[in-house]
Design brief:
The structure holds 3 protein chains of 3 kinds.
Chain A: H1 4-33, H2 55-63, H3 66-97, H4 103-115, H5 122-131, H6 138-142, H7 149-160, H8 164-172, H9 177-188, H10 190-205, H11 209-214, H12 223-232, H13 234-238, H14 240-260, H15 262-274
Chain B: E1 2-13, E2 16-27, E3 31-35, H1 42-50, E4 57-62, E5 65-69, E6 74-75, E7 83-86, H2 98-108, H3 113-126, H4 142-154, E8 160-164, H5 172-189, E9 192-197, H6 200-206, E10 209-214, E11 218-223, H7 225-230, H8 235-240, E12 245-252, E13 255-258, E14 281-284, E15 289-292, E16 297-306, E17 310-317, E18 320-327, E19 338-343, E20 347-349
Parallel strand pairs in B: 3-9, 3-10, 7-8, 8-9
Antiparallel strand pairs in B: 1-2, 1-4, 4-5, 5-6, 10-11, 12-13, 12-14, 14-20, 15-19, 16-17, 16-19, 17-18
Helix pairs in contact in B: 2-3, 2-4, 3-4
Chain C: H1 2-46, E1 49-50, E2 59-60, H2 64-71, H3 73-104, H4 111-119, H5 126-136, H6 143-151, H7 164-190, H8 194-202, H9 207-218, H10 220-236, H11 239-245, H12 256-266, H13 270-294
Antiparallel strand pairs in C: 1-2
Helix pairs in contact in C: 1-13, 2-13, 3-7, 3-10, 5-11, 7-10, 7-11, 8-9, 10-13, 12-13
The chains are: A mainly alpha, B alpha+beta, C mainly alpha.
C-alpha cells in the first residue's frame, strides 16, 4: 500500500527514539568507566575517553572485597532458587492434583504473599532474623524468600497442564505419587521451572533493600548492596569514573546472560504477568 | 453494467503465484461463489477485493470506480470501501453486547442515535437476533455468533458482501439453516455477494453462478450451478463437484472397452469424440451407473457399504474399480457376486 | 490373620493418603508463616506498643503511635509525596508501555533488537539504574543538563530541587520499569485475533477508532493487572530514594518505605515504624480492593 512505507518509517523513528533513551545512558557509563578520574569534570561532555584506562576497575578491586561480594551474590541467588525449587514443587503439585480439606482456603493464604508488599514486613522480618541469630549472614538474606507464592502459582498452572491420563496410566503401572513427580511431572514441567528460575535469580541478584537491612559488615554483602554502599562513601561519591566502573562490573553478568538468552528471559518475564 | 470487475489481477507471494491473471465481471445483485480446493487462491482474491492485499498486477472496479489498481498504485483502504464482510472465524467483539456489536459500523459512521437504533433493530430482526440483543457473544452458540457477524455487515446497507467460508465452523444442521438465511437476506436487500467456499454443496445451494478455480485462481468453469454439475468443462471440475469415477478405456474392433478388460464386454453409448485422441478418460458419476444381474460390462462386487439411504458398491472390472451408488430400496448385491454395469451418462475428457 | 493385617495396612495407607498433601505443602507454609503471615500480624500488634531506644522493652500504649503519625507533618508529607509519585509514575509508565507494545507489535524488521534494547533495564538492579541516572543528572557535568538545553529543559540541580527531585525519581522509575510492562502488554496484545482488526477495518474504523474500540477494551485485563502492580510498586519505591536523594531535599522525596526505614533502623523506633508499616499495608489493601470492586467490572475478557 502506498502509505505503508511512510507508516513503517514513523514506527521505526519512534522505536528508535525510545531505544536511544534506554541505551544511551548505558553507553555513557561504559565510556565513563574507561576514562581518567578528572576527565569527566568538564562542562561539555566528552564522549570518548582521551586516554582509555583500566585503572577504575582495578581501583574497585582495591577498594573493597569485590570477589567476596560476587561469591555471596551467587550463593544467595542460586541458594534461594535451589530451595525454592523444592518448596514450590511439593506445594504446587499438592494444589494442582491433590484433594484435601481446606485446599481453597490455604490457596488464598498462599496468594496473600503475592498481594503483600514485601517491604512492609521488613521490621518484623529483621527482628525474626535477629532472634534466630542469623543477622549478617547470607542465610538472613535468603530466609524470607525460601517459599514463593509466585513460583507455586506458576508451577501449579504448569502441572495442571499435564494430562490426567498420564497420571492414571502411571498409577495403573504401580507408580507412586513421589515417583510420578520425580520422573514424569518435573521433567514435563521444565519450561515452567526455567521461566521461574530466570525471574527468581534476576530478582535476588539485583536486590538491595533487604540485604541492606540484614547485613552490617562486608562478610555477607552482595554485589548490588556493595555498589550502593560504595556510592555513599566519600571515595565513591567523588570518584565518578570508579563508581561507573563498579556499576559496569555489577551489571556485566546479568546483561551478558540477557544478551545470550534474550528470548528466554523475555518469555519468562512475560509469563510472570500471566501469573497474576 | 457490471457491478464488480476484476481485471487481470495477479498476486504473488515470493515465488508462488497465488492469483494468476484472473478476470471476472459480476453484475449487480448476483450471488457468485468462488469454489476450489484449499490454497487455490480464492481467499486471496477475496482479500484483494476487500483491500487487505494489494495487487501485483491488474485493477479492481466497483461501479465505475477504481478501488485497487497496481498500475496507478492506488488502493482505497478497506475502511473506505463500504463492503460488508463475514469471516470464517466469527469476528464478533467479545466485549460488546449483540446490539452494540451490530451498531458498531453505524457508530463508526457517526450516525445519529435514533438512526442507529432503527437500522440496528432492522438488521437484528432480519437475522433473528432481536431477543438476544442484550446478551454477550460468549453466551451464544456458533450459529448465533455468525448471525451477529451477518447482521453487523448488513446494518449499513452495503452494496457488496464478501463472505469467506462463513459456515465452515458450524455444524451441518446449522449450515443448512444459515445457507437459507443468507439467500433470503440477499433477496431482500439485493446486494452483490461474493462467496468463497470449498464446499460444493454450499456453492450449489446458494449461488446464481459458480466459478470453479484451481491453483493460481485459474478459472476452470464459470457457469450456473446446474451446468457446472451436469456439463463439467473438464476433469478437474467434474472431480470437484460431486462423486466421480475416472476410467481408462481402449478402442478395439470398432468398440470401446474398459482398459485391460476386453472380455468384460463393450461399453455402450456414443463413441468418444475423435478430438480427444486415442486414449481419452471416461468420467461418470456413481449415481448414473446401473447395476444388472445379467448383461452389461461384467464385473465382481469387491465391496459393499451401507450409507443409510444409499448403498455404495465398488465393482472390480479387470484392473480398475468402478464406484456405483444405488438407493437402499433396490435389490442388494452381495460381496463377491457377479454383476454387470450399464453406463447411462458418459463424459469424455482428454 | 492375613485379612487383619490387610485391614491395618489399608488403614495406614489411607492415613498416608490423607496426610500426604499436608506434608507436601508444609515446607512452603512454614516459611510463609514465619516470614509473611506472622510478620503482618505481629506488625499490627507491635504498632500498639512503645518500643524504641528510650524504652527497650515493649510498653502498651494503645493507638499512641497512630496519633503521633496523625500529628506529625512529616507523615502527611510522606503520604503526599508517595501519592504524587504514584500519580506521576503509574499513568506515564502504562501509557508509554502500551504505546511501545503497539509499535513493537507491528511487523517491522529488527523488532527483536528493539525489544531487547527496551527491555534490558529490567535485568539490572535499581541500584545500578540509580547510579547511572545519578551521574546523568549531575549538574555541571551530567548529560541531561547539557543536552537538555536543546529540549528546553531547565539547567538545574535536579536532585537538589525541592519540586523537581521527585520528578527525577519518577523518571528513573519509568525508565526502569517501562520495558517490563511493555512485554506484558505485548503478551496481552498478541491474544487479540487479527481478524477482529480486519473486521473493524472493513466496517469503516480508522486506526484511532480501532485502538479505542477494539485494542484498548480487549487489552483491559492487562491494563488492570499492570495498573495494580504499578501502584503497589510506587508505594514500595526505596532503592532509588535511598541512593539518589536520601529522602531530600528537605524530605521532598521521602517516600513510605524510606520513612519506615528511617524510623525503624536509624531512630530505632520499632513501635512507630510498625505503625507506619501497618498504615502502608492498609492503604495498599484498600487500593487493591477498590481496584477489584470498581474496575474489575469494566474489564472485558475475550
Amino acid at each position: 500500500m502506498r502509505s505503508r512505507s511512510s507508516w513503517s518509517l514513523a514506527v521505526h523513528a519512534l522505536l528508535l527514539a525510545a531505544a536511544l533513551v534506554m541505551v544511551v545512558p548505558l553507553v555513557w557509563i561504559v565510556l565513563t568507566a574507561f576514562k581518567e578520574r578528572n576527565e569527566v569534570f568538564s562542562q561539555v561532555p566528552q564522549w570518548l575517553p582521551g586516554h582509555p584506562t583500566f585503572n577504575n576497575f582495578l581501583g574497585v578491586l582495591d577498594a573493597m572485597p569485590f570477589w567476596r561480594y560476587y561469591w555471596n551474590t551467587i550463593v544467595v541467588a542460586f541458594g534461594i532458587l535451589a530451595i525454592q525449587v523444592v518448596t514450590i514443587t511439593l506445594a504446587a503439585y499438592a494444589f494442582a492434583r491433590m484433594q484435601f480439606w481446606g485446599r481453597d482456603v490455604l490457596f488464598i493464604l498462599l496468594l496473600v504473599q503475592l498481594m503483600i508488599a514485601p517491604q512492609s514486613t521488613v521490621i518484623q522480618n529483621y527482628i525474626t532474623v535477629t532472634r534466630l541469630g542469623l543477622l549478617d549472614t547470607k542465610l538472613a538474606i535468603m530466609a524470607p524468600y525460601l517459599a514463593s507464592a509466585f513460583g507455586t502459582f506458576l508451577l501449579r498452572q504448569t502441572f495442571k497442564g499435564i494430562p490426567r491420563e498420564l497420571e492414571e496410566a502411571a498409577a495403573l503401572d504401580g507408580c507412586g505419587t513421589l515417583r510420578f513427580l520425580l520422573y514424569v511431572a518435573i521433567p514435563l514441567a521444565l519450561p515452567g521451572y526455567l521461566a521461574f528460575g530466570l525471574v527468581s535469580i534476576t530478582y535476588h541478584w539485583n536486590e538491595f533493600f533487604w540485604p541492606l537491612v540484614v547485613t552490617e559488615t562486608t562478610g555477607s554483602r552482595t554485589l548490588t548492596l556493595g555498589l550502593g554502599i560504595f556510592a555513599q562513601t566519600a571515595e565513591g561519591s567523588a570518584d565518578w569514573t570508579m563508581l561507573m566502573a563498579m556499576t559496569l562490573m555489577v551489571i556485566a553478568v546479568p546483561l551478558a546472560a540477557f544478551l545470550l538468552f534474550q528470548r528466554r528471559f523475555i518469555n519468562s518475564f512475560m509469563q510472570s504477568g500471566l501469573g497474576g | 453494467m457490471a457491478h464488480v470487475v476484476l481485471r487481470n489481477i495477479t498476486k504473488r507471494f515470493g515465488q508462488v503465484v497465488a492469483v494468476d491473471n484472473l478476470c471476472l465481471e459480476i453484475p449487480r445483485g448476483q450471488c457468485i461463489s468462488l469454489l476450489g480446493p484449499s490454497g487455490c487462491g480464492k481467499t486471496t482474491t477475496l482479500r484483494m477485493l476487500a483491500g487487505f492485499e494489494d495487487l501485483d498486477e491488474g485493477e479492481i472496479l466497483v461501479g465505475d470506480r477504481v478501488i485497487s489498481s497496481s498500475l496507478k498504485r492506488y488502493y482505497l483502504p478497506p475502511e473506505k470501501r463500504d463492503f460488508g464482510m463475514v469471516f470464517q472465524a466469527f469476528a464478533v467483539w467479545p466485549h460488546l453486547s449483540v446490539f452494540d456489536n451490530v451498531a458498531f459500523p453505524l457508530q463508526i459512521r457517526g450516525l445519529g442515535r435514533a438512526e442507529i437504533r432503527e437500522k440496528t433493530t432492522t438488521a437484528l430482526t432480519y437475522t433473528g437476533l432481536l431477543d438476544v440483543r442484550d446478551s454477550y457473544p460468549n453466551e451464544l452458540s456458533g450459529g448465533q455468533k455468525q448471525r451477529i457477524a451477518l447482521a453487523r455487515s448488513i446494518s449499513f446497507n452495503p452494496t457488496v458482501m464478501l463472505l469467506d467460508e462463513p459456515l465452515s465452523n458450524l455444524d451441518p444442521k446449522m449450515r443448512e439453516v444459515m445457507r437459507f438465511e443468507i439467500k433470503e437476506l440477499q433477496k431482500r436487500f439485493n446486494f452483490t455477494i461474493i462467496y468463497v467456499t470449498h464446499d460444493q454443496a454450499e456453492a450449489m445451494a446458494l449461488s446464481d453462478r459458480i466459478v470453479v478455480m484451481d491453483y493460481g485462481a485459474k478459472v476452470q468453469q464459470d457457469d450456473t450451478p446446474l451446468n457446472v454439475y451436469h456439463r463439467p468443462a473438464n476433469k478437474f471440475v467434474f472431480g470437484f463437484i460431486g462423486l466421480s469415477n475416472f476410467l481408462q478405456v481402449e478402442a478395439a474392433d470398432g468398440g470401446t472397452y474398459l482398459a485391460g478388460a476386453r472380455e468384460a464386454g463393450p461399453i455402450g453409448g456414443e463413441r468418444p469424440p475423435q478430438a480427444l485422441g486415442a486414449t481419452p478418460t471416461l468420467a461418470c458419476r456413481p449415481g448414473e451407473i446401473e447395476l444388472l444381474r445379467d448383461g452389461g460390462v461384467r464385473g465382481l462386487i469387491a465391496r459393499r457399504t451401507l450409507l443409510g439411504d444409499i448403498v455404495d458398491y465398488r465393482v472390480r472390472v479387470g484392473a480398475q474399480e468402478v464406484r456405483v451408488q444405488r438407493s437402499v430400496r433396490q435389490p442388494l448385491f452381495e460381496e463377491g457376486a457377479a454383476c454387470g454395469l450399464r453406463f447411462t451418462r458418459l463424459h469424455w475428457y482428454a | 490373620m492375613s485379612s487383619q493385617s490387610g485391614r491395618i495396612g489399608k488403614a495406614r495407607r489411607r492415613w498416608a493418603q490423607t496426610l500426604r498433601p499436608y506434608a507436601y505443602i508444609l515446607p512452603t507454609f512454614v516459611f510463609l508463616f514465619i516470614f509473611t503471615h506472622w510478620p503482618i500480624l505481629r506488625t499490627f500488634y507491635v504498632s500498639f506498643f512503645k518500643w524504641n531506644m528510650a524504652s527497650p522493652t515493649m510498653e502498651f500504649v494503645g493507638a499512641a503511635n497512630y496519633v503521633q503519625a496523625w500529628k506529625t507533618p512529616l507523615f502527611w508529607q510522606v503520604l503526599g509525596n508517595n501519592l504524587l509519585f504514584a500519580a506521576g509514575t503509574v499513568p506515564l509508565t502504562l501509557a508509554v508501555a502500551l504505546a511501545l507494545a503497539l509499535l513493537i507489535n507491528q511487523k517491522i524488521r529488527g523488532l527483536a533488537l528493539y525489544r531487547a534494547l527496551l527491555f534490558y533495564p529490567t535485568m539490572i538492579p535499581m541500584a545500578a539504574a540509580a547510579m547511572i541516572w545519578l551521574w546523568i543528572l549531575t549538574p555541571n557535568y551530567g548529560l541531561l543538563n547539557y543536552y537538555g538545553k536543546w529540549l528546553g529543559l531547565p539547567d538545574v540541580h535536579w536532585l537538589g530541587h525541592s519540586t523537581l527531585a521527585l520528578w527525577a525519581l519518577v523518571l528513573v522509575g519509568v525508565w526502569k520499569r517501562v520495558g517490563y510492562y511493555m512485554v506484558i502488554y505485548l503478551a496481552g496484545l498478541q491474544v487479540i485475533p487479527e481478524h477482529l482488526y480486519e473486521a473493524a477495518r472493513i466496517e469503516g474504523a480508522g486506526p484511532w477508532q480501532r485502538f479505542w474500540k477494539v485494542t484498548f477494551p480487549l487489552v483491559s485485563p492487562t491494563t488492570f493487572f499492570v495498573g495494580v502492580m504499578a501502584v503497589i510498586d510506587a508505594f514500595q519505591a526505596i532503592d532509588q530514594v535511598y541512593l539518589m536523594t536520601g529522602g531530600g531535599p528537605g524530605n521532598a522525596t521521602n517516600l513510605f518505605i524510606f520513612y519506615i526505614y528511617q524510623n525503624a533502623f536509624r531512630f530505632f523506633d520499632f513501635g512507630y515504624g510498625s505503625a507506619i508499616s501497618a498504615i502502608l499495608f492498609l492503604i495498599l489493601l484498600a487500593l487493591t480492593l477498590l481496584a477489584f470492586r470498581t474496575l474489575h467490572r469494566k474489564v472485558h475478557y475475550a
